[in-house]
Amino acid sequence: MLNIFYCHGFASSFDPGNSKVQTLARLGSVSGCNIDYTRRADEVISHVIERGNFANVDVIVGTSMGGWLATELGSSLGIPFVAINPAADPSQTLRNYIGAGEDYQGKPYTLSESTVASYYPIAKNGCGLILLDEADEVIEARHTQQMLSEYYQVEVFEGGNHRFAHMEEALPLIESFQSDAEVVYGLGET
After folding, report:
1. Of 96, 59, 95, 87, which Cα lies nearest the Cα of 148?
2. Superkingdom, according to UniProt (predicted)?
3. Which of 10, 20, 124, 126 is most buried (most C-beta within 10 Å)?
4. What is the pLDDT of residues 12-43, one digit of tens each?
């Protein structure tokens, strides 16, 4: 069984009852923490590193902004990652949310321009799998595919949406990717 660390997206929270988390739990234990993307990128990364027990994590999985974060964490910590509909250029994606807003739990937030400017394009190194829903209404899947296919295995599912409608279909891909990544990183049996 895998130890999975899950990074949720912008204005969301870590919820063990979330359908994506529940589906991932069929592969192993899933942990995570609440992430406040209204903080600067370096603060977000430090916060998650402090709270995650990454010495025991087999794979990091994240969606949207969490996909960006999973890529950043995985690349810097040497842990395989899966980025689902990732924010490939978060300083552009987050521009739509500058100012006052309300998160999915009904809590108010304020996102400043300087915070948005602190986010940089997705990492292009490390051992990653990118999963995209073609009909993502927030982040253009074809652009992400073109931007990242030279660096990572990219799988595009027909239809879907930004919340990612193909988690069930993605499970075998995630499992196979993680197994292959163990060999790449020298963590598994050959």
Report:
1. 87
2. Bacteria
3. 10
4. 999 999 999 999 999 999 999 999 999 999 99
Helix (H) or strand (E) holding 3: strand 2-7
Sign of CA dihedral 76, 77, 79, 83: negative
Percentage of residues of the chain with pLDDT beyond 70: 96
Measure the CA–CA gap between 68 and 80, rounded to whole angstroms.
Answer: 13
The Cα–Cα gap between 14 and 58 comes to: 18
How far is the C-alpha of 64 from the C-alpha of 62, rounded, in Å? 7
Using CA atoms, how far apart are residues 69 and 64, in angstroms rounded to an integer? 9
Parallel/antiparallel/unpaired status of strands 81-84 and 59-63: parallel
DSSP-assigned states of every residue in 30-53: EEE----TTS-HHHHHHHHHHH--
Domain ranges of the chain: 2-184
Q: 160 or 187, which is more confident?
A: 160
Count of alpha carbons within 13 angstroms of residue 180, beta-carbon side: 12
